[in-house]
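dumping this here so i dont lose it
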């Protein structure tokens, strides 16, 4: 299996070390690095669980990588745990932000295997040993100062860093935050649309209330319609002037007689059909005019 270009230090320590003679030298326990230049020089393995002997391997001794083993060439350097504790390292150091406020812990590092250069660190907010915890990427150029066990940055919070791996809790928080933002944006958009519709309706209503109907009509057409239309009664004329008064005295018998006599006189003064000019078309022909007699 060919070596990858980049590898996490935790993946490097998880494998067991086997040399070219086929001897198993145990699994890795820690990395060997040079913090001032952010470079990984090698790693340390523990061949036995009961002895204090530790084996230090250089990074250029790595030849192959399998699913469970690291294949190396050459002999390692032997040391003891007391010397390893004095080696400088930034792993498991506390990450401090503005005002020296603790933000997390440097839990891992992404290493370029060919040169050993650390491309970025992985920061954990909680205990790095907890499975499934989140990781944020911290590039070396964002580190302002470093001391044994402490790394200083100008960060306000971990969310200012890009997220490399999200835990279940962090995924839910980010998803809920994104949903909340989408709901707020949609609500504000709908609110703006309703406000625009309300403003347009208000403008139309105000225009209808302010405009007079005779001002909207065509003056020439109004004059023409006024000339063609019949004259209306004067506003001062009372339409109820000739209306019978219900409280007036009812007509008496003498009044009814006089009105009946007047009606008979008018009926008698009307011309009869025989007295009219020409024959009466409703009575037919006279006997003298009948040609058959």
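and the seq i came up w/
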């Amino acid at each position: 299996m060919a070596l990858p270009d980049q590898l996490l230090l935790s993946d490097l320590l998880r494998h067991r070390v086997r040399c070219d003679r086929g001897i198993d030298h145990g699994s890795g326990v820690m990395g060997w690095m040079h913090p001032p230049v952010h470079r990984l020089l090698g790693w340390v393995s523990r061949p036995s669980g009961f002895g204090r002997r530790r084996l230090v391997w250089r990074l250029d001794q790595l030849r192959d990588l399998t699913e469970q083993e690291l294949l190396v060439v050459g002999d390692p350097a032997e040391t003891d745990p007391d010397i390893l504790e004095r080696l400088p390292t930034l792993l498991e150091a506390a990450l401090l932000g503005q005002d020296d406020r603790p933000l997390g812990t440097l839990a891992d590092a992404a290493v370029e295997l060919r040169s050993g250069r650390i491309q970025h660190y992985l920061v954990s907010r909680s205990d790095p040993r907890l499975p499934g915890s989140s990781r944020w990427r911290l590039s070396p150029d964002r580190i302002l100062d470093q001391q044994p066990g402490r790394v200083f940055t100008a960060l306000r919070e971990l969310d200012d860093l890009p997220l490399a791996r999200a835990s279940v809790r962090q995924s839910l928080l980010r998803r809920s935050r994104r949903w909340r933002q989408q709901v707020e944006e949609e609500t504000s958009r709908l609110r703006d649309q309703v406000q625009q519709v309300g403003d347009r309706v208000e403008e139309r209503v105000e225009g209808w209330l302010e405009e007079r109907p005779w001002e909207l009509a065509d003056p020439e057409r109004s004059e023409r319609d006024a000339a063609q239309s019949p004259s209306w009664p004067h506003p001062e004329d009372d339409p109820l002037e000739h209306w019978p008064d219900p409280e007036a005295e009812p007509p008496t018998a003498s009044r009814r007689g006089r009105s009946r006599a007047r009606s008979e006189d008018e009926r008698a003064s009307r011309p009869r059909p025989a007295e009219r000019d020409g024959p009466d078309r409703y009575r037919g022909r006279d006997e003298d005019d009948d040609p058959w007699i």
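The chain has two domains: 1-165, 168-211.
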